[in-house]
Amino acid sequence: MVKTAAIIVAAGSGTRAAQGTDVPKQYSNLGGQGVLAHSLRTFAAQDMVDAIIVVVNPEHRSLYDVAAGQAPSVKLLPPVSGGASRQSSVLAGLEALGELRPSRILIHDAARPFVSSATIAAVLSALDGHAAALAAVPVADTLKRAAPDNLVAETIERTGLWRAQTPQGFRYPEILAAHRRAAANITTTFTDDASIAEWAGLTVALVPDSAANTKITTAEDLAMAQASVSAMEPRTGTGFDVHRFAAGDHVWLCGLKIPHTHRLEGHSDADVGLHALTDAILGALGDGDIGEHFPPSDPKWMGAASHIFLRDARDRVTARGGRIINVDLTLLCEAPKIGPHRRAMQQTVAVILGIDASRVGIKATTTEQLGFTGRREGIAAMASATLLVPG
Ligand code: MG
Asked: What percent of the chain shows pLDDT beyond 70?
């Protein structure tokens, strides 16, 4: 069931940001990927988001396909064509979700590539107590209203003023009804969806956001965003783990339960593959190891599913403003056979990490019956991870 869906609005034709090209800003290059791909990835990695739909200008379909291919596809619905205004584009996105009938909806501008997972979560939690909520930043600058000749007409008291950002969150039936009514009202044009909620009489809560969730409008905005992305540095880490066999009838490997003549012994579910991957990511961050964050002495982790550990490592990357470029894993064992499960393992790890399956390597080898893995006493795993983190 789709509880929460996200609409990412990418239908604008604005080419102000992309100097000398006719590439609209939402598809401009930002760190080797389209601007849109950045927020797609953040929404896809957020556990509370079940489905994502992008509203596009049909003339940009090939640009969309490239950007969408740079992000995980697992929650992504087919794109929907937008209208002449932002408002009509959002309505097209809302209508396209009619069959899914999500209970909550997030609406986000593709031109804000730096939205954080924490902001998405905060907007969604605000919906527990309010009909609508939006990410916003208190105004810090002194505000002037200009007369037509660019002379100052007045200074506006900034106390209590906020800048509206996105995402903005709503309960689906209410915002759909409000948008439909607004579309029938020819005298008013709304520049964001919270305004439509206010107009419809819904209570709208402000959720304090970071100014880093900036909107790329001009060429200068794009250049500043590119500079901040290129300040990211690549990091690599490695992980290694071993678990011994004990009496049992299945093993957990890369999040899959695989029938086997033995089980793997360990405090948690002994998923040797996910443990090595977790340590590889923690290693790249210089942030200890799995045993430090999840001590075997703590009964809380008895029998724990190891995706918890890997998810925690991924969240540590996100919290630093970084992202996972790829991970690579080699399992060393005589049995069970890994080949038949390789694709499912790749998919499972990709979902846990919120990255595309093409960024997950799963390999296996025997050790030619040499050593402890050759004697079928246990399974070893080695992994590497490459990250980009702010320098
Ligand atoms: Mg282990």
From this structure: 98
